[in-house]
Amino acid sequence: MSTAFESPPEPAHRPLSEAELAEVRHFVARYQARRPVVTYALAAACAIVFLLELLWGGPSSTRLLLRMGATTPGILEGEWWRLVSGAFLHGGWMHIAFNTMALVSLGRNLERILGARRFLVLYGLSAIGGALGTVLLSPLTGAALSVGASGAIVGLFGANAVLAWRPHGILPAVIHKQARQTAMGNLVLLAAISFVPRVDWAGHLGGLIVGAALMASGLLTWGLPRLDEHEADDRVPLPVTLLAVLVLLFLPAGLAAAFWHGQPWAYGAPPRLFSVALPEVGLVAALPADLQPTSRTRREDGGLEILFGDLRRSDGMVLLIVPSEDPDLLALSLDTWVDIERQYLEQQHPAVGRLTVVKSPEVDPGPPPKVYSRSAVADRVLVDRVITLLETRPVTVEVSYWREAEAAWRGLADRIAASLSETGIEGMDAGDTSH
């Protein structure tokens, strides 16, 4: 219900009885005695995080939002912080303005009715429910990531609706009709908004289910004195208090963990390179410090492909393609390698017309000759490849990165290729790779 109860409601058609007036006065006294500190603290936290978004690159950058903890299917792969961190992020001024208005309007009323601890449980668990809805239904929605407090706020709508229909003696009888009408209006508005393009209806659904279930279960009204219990105090049960403490710890911990893992303040900065020994292929290479090996694939010719990083979690990734030693490959001219690379890219990305393939000047003696290529994938991902003809084999460095990270990642493939050196100790266990 979105109407504050600052004074007893005026009778619409008939005078209120003494019992009804007493009930209303008692409700208003309890309502006004509570201050919605949790609601305002949550709104302030969202505002502060939004200012950080503006400071570090802007809410229009999906890569920045990913670094700051946007909700993604990474939750199912152990990125637990994304269960709540995405609820502090917003995709623009209108997004945060609308969510803050809804949170303050509805949240301060529910918090005054339920109390701070119960309200905190409702908000936190609804936020988690919204994140799970987003992730579990992502195969249906196609959403790669989601941000916003909407899941938690919709949970408040769900709890509010259940309370309006099942007031448990907590709301005065004279406002039941008004409360139900307001709840129905809120739900109709919510349903209309949920199916606007780019709105995460799956997150809304998850938050709604959790919020409604928490209220329907009686957990959020457990210990609340009924209006006919004039002398009774609000007794928050120990399990509810413990849940509130867990939520109070989990919300900031999730946001802090998101920042720790994503390091959003470093967004847009060129990757720092560290020398990495790759004994399984007999190479040493300078690679981005924050990219860990994610896969190793044995090639048909006996060589190895090693992938560092994942575009779902970082601004770019690096693939080293190391074939087995073959003198025939080294005998090919640079012009032949240019043709081979062009054919490869045209087969890999036939729909992409923007690709370039060039060769380095042939200087003898000088650095190993190279073939450079650049292409785009789906207009969002850029791919730079450098084939370096080392003494025993050609090694390909492939760097893929999001277009919005181009300023920081362009030229990285050449820097990595220039750092390659052969150690002559190929064949050791892959687990011996070290930074």
Q: Tags for this entry?
A:
disordered C terminus, Protein Transport Mog1p, Chain A, 2 domains, three-stranded antiparallel beta sheet, Rhomboid-like fold, 15 helices, single chain, alpha+beta, 10 strands, elongated, 435 residues
Tell me what you see in this structure.
This protein has 435 residues and is of the alpha+beta class. The chain has two domains: 18-266, Up-down Bundle (Rhomboid-like fold), CATH 1.20.1540; 273-432, Protein Transport Mog1p, Chain A. It is 46% helix and 14% strand. The chain contains 15 helices and ten strands. A seven-stranded antiparallel β-sheet has the order 3-4-5-9-8-7-6, sandwiched between helices. Strand 8 (381-389) and strand 9 (394-402) form a beta hairpin. Helix 5 (93-114) runs parallel beside helix 8 and helix 8 (150-165) packs antiparallel against helix 9. The radius of gyration is 29 Å and the shape is elongated. Mean pLDDT is 85; it is low at 1-9 and 425-435.
Secondary structure blueprint with pairings:
Elements: H1 18-33, H2 37-56, H3 62-68, H4 82-85, H5 93-114, H6 116-136, H7 138-141, H8 150-165, H9 176-194, H10 201-216, H11 238-262, E1 273-278, E2 283-288, E3 293-298, E4 304-308, E5 316-322, H12 327-330, H13 334-348, E6 356-359, E7 370-377, E8 381-389, E9 394-402, H14 406-409, H15 412-419, E10 421-422
Antiparallel strand pairs: 1-2, 2-10, 3-4, 4-5, 5-9, 6-7, 7-8, 8-9
Helix pairs in contact: 2-5, 5-6, 5-8, 6-8, 6-10, 6-11, 8-9, 8-10
